[in-house]
Amino acid sequence: MNRRMRTYYYAVFGAIGGLIGWQVSNLLGLSFITNIYLSEAVVGALVGLSIGLLIGVAEGLLTLNLVQAARSGGLGGLLGLGAGVIGLPLSEWLFQSVGAGMLGRAVGWAIFGLLIGLAEGVGSRSQVWKGMLGGLLGGAMGGFLLQGIQTLLKASLLGKAIGLILLGASVGAFISLIVVLLSRAWLEVKTGKLKGTEFILDKFMHLQGHAIAIGSSPLKSEIVLPDPDIAPQHAMLTGDGSHFTLKDMSLSGTVINKRRIELAQLTNNCTILMGNTEMVYHEKRWK
């Protein structure tokens, strides 16, 4: 998926998570819980688990990396559960005790979104602060939308369903949008099964960060290219804070700008060929 479509898919997966969370909590009924805050905590846990899980698996599924999908989805679901337990009762407390109304809902769901963003950042090993900022903004926006829809539809089941769908979509969209807007470097796949996919590299650029592998095995490489002519660990990518260096680790070789290399620094718009897969490296410099 390219960077623009990434935000769309994150929004869709987040919306599905909100819908699943609403449906599960609706089926359970929760009429046996008389304490409103405990009830909100249980509902929040279900919603958070669903949204965190779906957003977590999004990028792994869309890049055909099931290992990453399972790892990020599991962590996202667990932290999302915790986020819901905190966020929904907090928004209810603000709403009930200080009369904050829509603002109270927004604050509570902003904290929920921040924790979902934390989970996504940790799960995908990205720059965590970007996920947290996106989640914070998405949760606040989702909180306003949820409360607005519930008020408009007089707190009906339909209003709750639409509100949670919009909440999940907003959290997912903003988490991705912040990462995309602030991205400095990415690889664009030009040929093969992942044609059009863009791998954002900012999370790997920092100085003294560990080298990452590009290859065909999801167990041995962080960036996975499903190409039989690419080795399980084909090349290693190392950041120095401002640039990337690519080191070939394969028998078949790595070609940059039509020249076979052993070790080379990547430059903006250079072409990289591994097996039958061609990629273009893009970078954006801040002035």
Description:
The model has no long low-confidence stretch (mean pLDDT 85). A hairpin with a 4-residue loop joins β5 (235-239) and β6 (244-248). The chain is an alpha+beta fold and 287 residues long. The strands form 2 sheets. A 6-stranded antiparallel beta sheet has the order 2-1-11-10-7-8. A 5-stranded mixed beta sheet has the order 4-3-5-6-9, with no helix packed on it. 56% of the residues lie in helices and 15% in strands.
Secondary-structure map:
Blueprint: H1 3-28, H2 36-62, H3 66-97, H4 101-123, H5 128-152, H6 157-181, E1 185-189, E2 198-200, H7 202-205, E3 212-215, E4 223-224, E5 235-239, E6 244-248, E7 254-256, E8 259-261, E9 263-265, E10 271-274, E11 277-283
Parallel strand pairs: 3-4
Antiparallel strand pairs: 1-2, 1-11, 3-5, 5-6, 6-9, 7-8, 7-10, 10-11
Helix pairs in contact: 1-2, 1-6, 2-3, 2-4, 3-4, 4-5, 5-6
